[in-house]
Amino acid sequence: MATTSSAPHQLVIVAAALALAGGLFMLPKGIMKPKESKSELSKDAAATANRDGGGMATNGSKTEASSGAVPATATENNGPNAKAPHTTASSAQRQELTRLLAEFKAAPNAAAKATVATTLARRYNSVERFDSAGYYLEQVAQARPSAQNWQQAADAYFQAFSFAATDERVKLLGGKARELYTKVLKEQPDNLDAKTNLGMAYMASENPVQGISMLREVLEADPRNEKALYNMGILAVQSNQFDKAVTRFQELVKVNPKNVNGQFYLGVTLARTGAKEEAKKAFLVAKSLSNDPALAASVDEEVAKLK
User: Fold this and answer.
1) Cα–Cα–Cα angle for 181, 159, 259, nearest 5°?
2) pLDDT digits (tens, 9 = 90+) for 51-91
3) CA gap 229, 219 in Å, rounded
4) Cα gap 259→253, rounded to integer Å
């Protein structure tokens, strides 16, 4: 998510559950439709909830308790695991996951388990079971401790956290992300990418002010940090501080004029402050930078409202 381009510029909200946790929505993965209400945003988030895998019992601390085994045993729409949110794995993928899980359990030592866990994590990531990927990457990091390995596990949990659609899942996955990013920063205190994600994960905790403080620290260290500028802008949008949001997005597109999300949200916030002509320009720049038809449609809707 270094430049908010790690995923297509989809018109989805990916962590509406943060409204439950702290009164703010976090949007690290895509663009939301500004016209949507909180209930509509929550519906959109629920529609993407399969990406955080697992059910309410997922705790990321035990192989069997983790959602890891679910896709390997679930049937498409029936059977004992029919209520599992995971629906993206094909029959062949589930068979491979079953085989790998058995191989992981049978591995004779930590090193062998870590090797299988690496493959498992890749397979879970490919079917958008990010919490399961995070669990197995954490096993790798425990066997081979390094800042890089801890961050890979943290990033997977953060991705699952970003798609979580319930308060419980947000807290659970945000907690795991915070735990693992803290390990990264203990070894690499100047790792601004980890610090930015940790700051956003704190937005779902009982101490969101710490999250804001961390994002500000990132910008003090690197005023051109795209991820931190974007997230600070989004947080300003969600707290209805549109003047502040405009400033953040203006800074962002000055750093990177090709940042599609930045240009889109600059249009959104300029429109909210009454600067219609400037908003139209930003919207059209965003549209010119992407081939995403959903983005184009949303831009057309927003521009039409400016007339």
Assistant:
1) 100
2) 444 332 333 322 223 333 333 222 233 222 333 344 468 88
3) 7
4) 6
Answer yes or no: are the C-beta atoms of 82 and 70 closer than 8 Å: no
What gap in Å lies between CA 104 and CA 73, rounded to an integer? 16
- Give the Cα separation of 253 and 268 in Å (integer): 14
Q: What is the distance between the alpha carbons of residues 152 and 146, in angstroms, rounded to a whole number?
A: 10
Burial class of residue 176 (count of CB atoms within 10 Å of its CB; 0-12, 13-18, 19+): buried
- Distance, CA of 19 to CA of 58 (rounded, Å): 21
Quote the pTM value.
0.74
Side chain identity at 206, as an amino acid letter?
E
Q: Could you tell me which of 200, 172, 163, 201 has the C-alpha nearest to residue 45?
A: 163
Query: Residue 185, exposed/middle/buried by CB under 10 A (0-12, 13-18, 19+)?
Result: buried
